[in-house]
Every structure is written in structure tokens, then in C-alpha cells.
Amino acid sequence: MTVSCLRSKDLLGTEGLSAEEITLILDTAEALRPIGERQIKKVPALRGRMVVNLFFEASTRTRFSFETAEKWLSADGLSFAAKGSSVEKGESLLDTARNLQAMSPDLIVIRHSCPGVPHFLARNLRAGVVNAGDGAHEHPTQALLDALTIRRRFGRLEGLRVTIAGDITHSRVARSNIWLLTRMGASVVACAPPTLLPPRIEEMGVSATTDFDAALEGADVVMMLRMQLERQGASLFPSAREYFKRYGLTAARLALAKPDAVVMHPGPMNRGVEIASDVADSARSLILEQVSNGVAVRMAVLYLLLTGHTWEGETA
Amino acid sequence: MSGLLLVAGGRLVDPAAGRDGAFDLLLRDGVVAEVGSNLAAAGARVLDATGLIVFPGFIDLHAHLREPGREQAETVATGLKAAAAGGFTAVCAMPNTDPVNDNRAISEYLVSKARGAAGPRLYPIGAVTRGQLGQELAEFGEMRIAGAVAVSDDGKWLADGALLRRAFEHARLVGLPVIQHCEDPSLSGGAPMHEGAVSTRLGLPGQPAIAEAAAVARDLLVAEISGGRLHVAHLSTARALELVREARARGLPVTCEVTPHHLTLTDEEIARSSFSTNFKMNPPLREPADCDALAAGLEDGTVDAIATDHAPHHEDEKALDFETAPFGVVGLETAAAVVYDRLVRTGKLSLARFAEVFSAGPARALGLPGGTLAPGSPANLTLFDPERPWRVDASRFESLSRNTPFAGWDLTGAPAATIVEGRVVWKRET
Is residue B68 reached through a cis peptide bond, with omega within 30 degrees of 0 on the bond before it? Predict the structure, then answer.
């Protein structure tokens, strides 16, 4: 069964997406992808549509990726960083949002350090809302770009074994990937040290382990998460050195996975902490491909949410 | 002052007096004068209670009335109006006001404000430590003279064990129980919700259930060596309840309360509502097994009282993201109906225990007047219509705040009238 549009005005997470919606987004991304390979990287698909990028938390990759997607589709993108804005003068989130609403944007892309903020905005605004990361909750476009990357390499998601390793507790990337990949029929192994493995993660439909070697066995995809070194003070792990010994992805460890297994990382990487440089830069690494696919996926999400129908080529 | 009032035609449910049946009550000068069949009294006004259940007046052990300091969220007058509309004839006011009720002057201020409001009785709860700072004991004896019925540092668990021991010892001298909000912050981390499958899914920090149990265990041990009276506020987990049950079996003078929301809601509501802050309270909503354990504890007598933990917050304060928004929900106007509909009508709680946990139980826990309508008792009555269907609509609350987790609930059963010392302080207009 296929669908030709998304059910909601918002993309708040992958948790609520059906397999058909995920496929629609990935197919649309695939169709839009060539725009980035041309000399003139612009189509008029979203001309006159206004997108506000509201980033309350630092971001380079994700914000540039959204901004690029907006430009390539000719939307008017407006970026807003919390620093230097009226938020610092004590304006409440709801007031900030209402003021933006008064300028009639069509879509708001938001990143915030607290889970649920995009949902709060979606409830209170007419504009569509795209979650670009809410705390440790969800980061749906990251999971979609990961899925696109995997699908391009393997031709499918179903039946693959994906190992997600690292700081699962604080990772929105892990959660969004778990929902998406399990929905699409992949089997997911979540691996983390005991201090970074949240309780009852199995209830999200994954198998969980603290043994990295065991987690790697038979993996088609190894998705490494960033060790959040800024959390060092919380005694989540004694040191980066001790972490790397047990949970760092080295070439020797990667040999435990399937021979054609690929390595992914949402960035930014800590080389020598969660991943060895030679692995990150090897032919099996899809890390930079993830970044280019990010623009394609974000174009697809913007396009589908703003037009409500499938991409039929440049005259659409 | 109130002359004669005859409450006639209702079903009296008064377990403390061993009565359940058709009885009339004659109230004279603020006390119950007579209980019997077909009572008549010349010159008495008659309140027709046909079709209603007459209970000994409901007592709420745990409410935040916000005055002084946060009058935009609630005042003594509006809080007591809300209490009356919820069937409560008396309310205990927690001390976390601004300034904190840690002295006789503020306790007296609250009592006099309540007297002016001429509604339910207000019993102040004084702070254990000055400013609720957990350092020096407040003047329990002075506050008691002003009418304080217990001491508590409320939301702040007294972490210093030696200080808690002295608090128990001094409170014993003065004759007051110590109420503890049992949460070990070194385990809970002040997290905004319960730790479990839902917090993992939502990526929110969680408070493990043992943060409550560990605090209860420590407090029981300290209470035991100091001979103090411990009352555990809003107990929310099966494990902590088990500790209270064991302690009572050993004869320790410990009591506890549970809230309607911990009996009827779980952490799943936070996910279902997409992070609605009306499901953020402390202790946080737990899991189905905890709800079941608390209901069983109510029925078997381990739990003494239902308390609302009525915590009004202005809409602006709650219109924030889930981690930043303050803890707390209002409860005075929904407590009795929610518990009646979801526990009594479903057979989880007998009508006799319902009566006890709203009246005799709380009265005993803090040594308050009331709890029975035997002749000679204070004429505090809650009249309840067990058949009335209604929908919770926060916009119609008497409370100044609207932060209820029960908005839109369809309930059967509602308070019909509230009588305090022989005077009708609230009556539903139909």
C-alpha cells in the first residue's frame, strides 16, 4: 500500500509515522536528491513559502542542512538563534512562538533542549512544526536520513540487523532510529555501558546489551553515537580512555560484524573516544553520505508538509 | 449562631458511629444534636437530603492555598470556596507560602483569613525548619497555639537525619505529628517524571520509585528511635506502601495519605497527552501496579486518608515545556468525585472505606475534630449525590487555577452540599 501525503501538519517524531509514510518520505527524498547534483541547485517548488528555523540549542549540521534544503526548494528560510533574541530578555516560549506566528510562517523547524517543546508549539500554532531535535526525545529527520543512507546501500531496511551503540540514554538519534527501523522491519540492538542504557529500553522493541562485541556480531549496520563529553562530571563513565577500550569502534571490533557491514555516525564525532579514525575514514564509513542525504530528506519533509502531495517533477 | 438545621431523608454513612442507613440529623448550635428516624423539630430549617448520601465532613490533609505570596494562583478565600465545592469541611494548608509559614504570626494570619471567608475550617501546617531551609527548627509550640495541627517542610524532604530526629522529639513534646514529603533527592535528581519505560521512550529524566521508598525507610527508622509521629504525605509507590504496612504491623505510630491522581493515573498520560504539564506533579504519576497497590492499601486500612495535594498554578506558569514547568495540579473540586467514580463504583473501594478515608481517617491522622456524626460531634457534613453525572470543566472551577489532570472526564457522583458547624457553606445549584 502506498500513500501520497502525510497525515499530520507536523513532523514531531518517527514514533507516529506509518511504514507507508516513511517510504513516501524516502522515495520523495530520492526523487529530490538530484537537485543537489546540478550546477543550478534550485527549483521553484516552495516559492513564496516561509520557513522559520528556531534553534534554541547549538547546531551546525542540522541547521545548515535545513537551510540548504529550504534554499534549493526556493522557500524563504529565516533562522533564529536563541542567543541575542527576546528569549534572553525573558520572553516565554509561547509568546515567542505567537509573535512568530503573527508573521504567518508556513512551517517552523525547531530544536530545543527540552523534550516536548515541538509538541507544545504544534498544539499552539497554526503553522506546521518540524522537530529538529527535542532533548533526548526525538530527531526524526536524522533517523530518516539514516534510513535513506541504509536503503541506498542495501536496497532495503527490512530484515537488516542494526546495532546502535553509545550513549543511548541521552540520544534522540537513538530513539528516532529505533522507532523508524523497527517499524520498517529491521532488528535493532541497543548497546551501551550500564550507566548509559536507559531502563526498559527493550520495551521499545529492541534487544539491549552492555557487551559491545556481542552487539556487533552479525550486524549489517553499526550506528555509533556521540559520547557527550560535556557530561563527564556526572560520573557516567570514568574517562574517555576507559570508554574507548570497551566501547570504541576499532577495525578489529568491526571485523565481528558482517563482512559488508557499514559504519554510521550522526556527528559530531569524537575520534578516539567512540570511534577510531581509521574506521571513521574507511570505505565502510557512510558518515559523509549521511550528511548529503540529510539535505535530500529535509527537502522531502518540507515539500510534503507544505504542499500536501507527492513530488511530480519540477513543474509541480 | 446557626440555630436548628434538620438534614432529612438522606442515607447516613458514618462508619465511626457504626451507622449506614436512613437517618435524619438535627444540628443545633454547630453540633450534631440528634440522629434518628423521622426527626422533627419545631422551628428548624429543613435540608432535604433525599437521594443523597450524608457523610461526616470531608477533611483534606494536604492543600496549597498560595496565600500569602502567590495570590494570582489561589487565595485562602478562593481555595476554601473550591474546598467547599468539593465537599470538604476542613483543609490543612501547607506552609510553602511566601513568606513561609514558619511562625505564629503567619499561622494566625491564615486562621483569621479563613474565619473571614466563613467556609470550611482551615488548619495551618507549620514548617519544620525556619524558611523551610532544613537548618534550624521553627517554633512548633508557638505555631500550635495559633492553630497549627502538624509540621512539615512540605516539598522539601528533611534530608538531615539528626535534625529530623530532633524535629520528631520536639514535635512529640508539643504534640504535633511530622509530615514528610518522602523523596530522597540524591536518588530522584529532581527529575520531572517517574523513571520507567515511559521516561525512557520520552527521553525525559526519571525519578526511580526507590527514591520514595528509601526516604520512607529512613524516616521510619528515625521516627522509631525518637518516638515521633510520622505522617507520610502523598505516598505513591507500592514499595513505600509496603514499608508503611510493615512498620504499622510492628506498632509504629505512622500514618499515610494518597492522592486521587496517584490512584487513577499513570506515567503513560504524559506520553498520551504529548507532554501536557497538567500531568506533572511530585511525586510523579507512577505505574499501573502502583495504582493497584495504593487502592488495595486504601481498602485494607494501610492508607489512612485521601489528600488532594491541591497545587494551583497560574496558566502562564504551566504553559512551559515539561522540564521547566512547576510540579502540581489542582484537586479540591475533583477529589471526591474521581475517587467515587473510579474506585467505589468499580468495586475497588467500599462505601464505608470511602467515608473513612475522606473523614475519620484524616481526622485521626492529625488529631482533628470530626470524622463522625455521632450526637455531640461537630456538625460538619458532606452531602453527596451518588447518581449525578457530570463532566469535569476546569473553566467552572471555584479555584483560581485550572491545572487539572482530569479535564473532560465524565464522572458519576458529585458533592451536593457542604455543612460546616451547622451552617450550609456551599450547595449545588441545579
Answer: yes
